[in-house]
Amino acid sequence: MSRDPVQLAATDAGGPTRQLWQSSRSLFRRWPVTTFYVLTLIVSWPAGLLPPGPSIAAVAAAVLIDGRSGVVQLLRMVLVWRVGVRWYLVALLGPLALFALAAWLNVRLGATAVGSLALDWSEFGSLLVLQLVGVFTGAWEELGWRGYALPRMLSRFSPLVASLSLGVLWAVWHLPLFLAGDIPWADAAFIVVVSVLFTAVFVRTSHSVLIAFLMHASINAAGGVTVLLFEGGDRTQMYWAVTAVTLVVAALVVGLRASWWLKAPTGPTESVPLTSEPRHDIEKEER
Fold first, then answer.
1. Where exactly are the structural domains of the chain?
2. What is the chain's mean pLDDT, rounded?
3. CA 157 → CA 116, 161, 268, distances in Å?
4. Which of 129, 130, 142, 135 is nearest to 216 (CA)?
5. Any residues with CB less than 8 A from the CB of 175 and at least 6 apart, and which?
6. Which of 89, 107, 119, 254 has its Cα between 20 and 30 A from that of 261?
7. Which has the closest alpha carbon to 102: 89, 127, 119, 124?
8. Is the whole model's pTM more than 0.90, yes or no?
9. Largest alpha-carbon pair distance within the chain?
């Protein structure tokens, strides 16, 4: 049986190094989400904000904590694709509906659009393709947020608390963009709220990172089409309109299965192997 290359290197380095490595690995295993998040900031922030940073950190954390098997299990989540056509439609068209409704609401609240509110499908398609193939776009974060962090947070907290907590971490990660003025602070609220919808889709699709990837790409593409229809204060108001619409949808989703969303797991622990079965199964709750 092959040995973990990380552990093998530490063993060959000698007694003191081996003890230090074992102590460090024990700490990493006790706090995997914290380890992942610190690595995410270290990888992402020096470059301003590196979009694939969370995914790179997830692979690194998997290597440090679970070794080769951890990386394999993590990457397998990307290959979960047999989830039903409806979830592809939800992931790709759901965000577009949210943003279109938010644009209509923004105009109703007094904002002036610089262009037609009619959807430009060609522009949306072009932006979506760019999000899917561009490694330095937001969708490439998902191996980290949903693939690595969310399952572990679901093992410790109720789905609602796990979602909102991850949303806060996700929003803080965007801090360089907020400080640079690239996106308004209002977007932080949207990031936190939309995390609830990501969790709902993620759990329903057997922890498919692929679907989360598509959903994130669609959100960015839909935002690129609709947010830019407004300027100045109207654009900031558009971010709040998107947040409001998303909040209503998230509230409905949570309300339909409130007992599941509010139920904390038994025997809480942050350290959960990638090979473990998810403790939160909404399908079982419905039976």
1. 81-286
2. 86
3. 44, 6, 7
4. 142
5. none
6. 89
7. 119
8. no
9. 69
